[in-house]
């Protein structure tokens, strides 16, 4: 292993270990349980800490504490540099979070506010859950810079906790977190460029072979769902206790089908790795075993949007809180689509079943059919096969034209019309009846019923309890224009939503 990469990390590790040890009153450090520094046990330790304080009121804020991004980030570096526990970055971060919570208790500062700020800090980190190669000096420079900002913010928070009047503490911590967020934002952009360089599939076709799943000990748990080509399981990684989604795609009967599956999996993974976005499911690793291709993803969804919308209709719209949250999914999804389009990726199968929901957050998933138009132009290696889900398919695709980005805009517009229906308190059955006059056994494609959809959206505008801002109804109407040349781009729709007065409702707070 090269010293140029290794030793600056060791140095950083030493530096922050010393900083945390010297910060806090001795009695706190001495009483920190040994397992608090072992990655994977932190959640349990925090629970125990709450119980020890007899603090039932804060049970919920503590459960809400998020440190996944920093944890996955630290583990990626630990793996790359073969740093073993307990003296590694993941251990250091666990230790730092634990003492921050303990100090918050000791100083009598509002725990829920500190937890909110720690969550903000975690969210400000980019997702670094891909495999970090040990030898990539520029990438490591950016990653060290991220780690430095994150860790020094935790040091500052602890300093503030012990030096500022408890009444002013939250204000001071807010300022610190805000500054760090800005700094991290700048590095994020540079990191993206480094990653693109490094993980560019043109230069790195051996990536999939080298990541053969070694070092990952996954136990399969329940089935989460069935995607376009495989079954998705919930899986737990034994050493870390982290939960992942594991998609298994069988090779198929013969060599021909095996080759096709392989091409599809490679395509999906390469494309998703090109798209590090807040609302796009992230591929951590993919490898083959004896029977299948395995794709490990970081979003373990509770719902897909299709099931969620059906559930809302069936339960008479009792998910009122989430229906309210749903408004921000419009902005988040168009933001994700715009991001993919800017990276020259056409999703090609946008439908509610391919949109995942975890907590209050949506994710665009299932890029199995997507097309990297940049790769197509340069290599002509990928053939275009005209399939995808018929119901949401754009009219020009049904006519046999090759997909362009605006076909995605159409499909997402159809999805939006269903989201608006449920958001407005109407069932999808009612919408379907309104759309298709005849009794159909297969769902009528949207493209054949556009005038009825337009009429329906106007009804929602008048009678949807005024719940959806008209800007989103206007944009949806425009997205489902039959003529692709008259449709807006994802970028345009995003822009219109961003500049509307409902901006805060139409995007989640991560876009601030
Ligand atoms: Zn968002």
From TrEMBL:
Residues 218-498 form the Protein kinase domain. The keyword Transferase applies. It holds the Pfam family Pkinase. ATP binds at residue 247. Belongs to the protein kinase superfamily. Ser/Thr protein kinase family. GCN2 subfamily. It comes from Aspergillus pseudoustus. This is Kinase-like domain-containing protein. It comes from the Eukaryota. PANTHER family: EUKARYOTIC TRANSLATION INITIATION FACTOR 2-ALPHA KINASE EIF2-ALPHA KINASE -RELATED (PTHR11042). Keywords: ATP-binding, Kinase, Nucleotide-binding, Transferase.
